[in-house]
Amino acid sequence: MEERLGIKLVERQAGGRNGGWVNLTKDARKFLRRYELMEEGIKEIVDKKFKTIFGK
């Protein structure tokens, strides 16, 4: 996914004695916020079309 988007999504630390971790990058958090806005817009379009076709 990182390659396709062209941004780094997670920072990783391999496990060891104290265990590893994974964190989202700033770019990943920004992408998720923008994706949520897009998803809301798509829902609005689908709701409008549904009402046009089914009258509800």
Give a written overview of the molecule.
- The chain is α+β, with helices and mostly antiparallel strands and 56 residues long.
- The protein has one domain.
- Helix content is 59%, strand content 14%.
- The longest helix is centred in the C-terminal third of the chain and has 29 residues.
- It is elongated.
Strands across the major sheet, in which order? 1-2
- Biggest β-sheet, characterized? 2 strands, antiparallel
Mean pLDDT, all residues: 93
Q: Which class do the helix and strand fractions yield?
A: alpha+beta
Number of strands: 2
Q: Could you say which overall geometry the principal axes of the C-alpha atoms support?
A: elongated
| Approximate strand percentage | 5-15%
Helix content: 55-70%
Element-level helix/strand string: HEEH
Distance between the termini: 38 Å
Query: Which residue ranges are poorly predicted, with pLDDT under 50 across at least 5 consecutive positions?
Result: none
The count of helical stretches stands at 2
As for the number of domains, it is 1
CA-atom Rg in angstroms = 19 Å
Short précis:
The protein has 2 helices and 2 strands.
Notable traits:
single chain, 56 residues, alpha+beta, two-stranded antiparallel ribbon, 2 helices, 2 strands, 59% helix, 14% strand, elongated
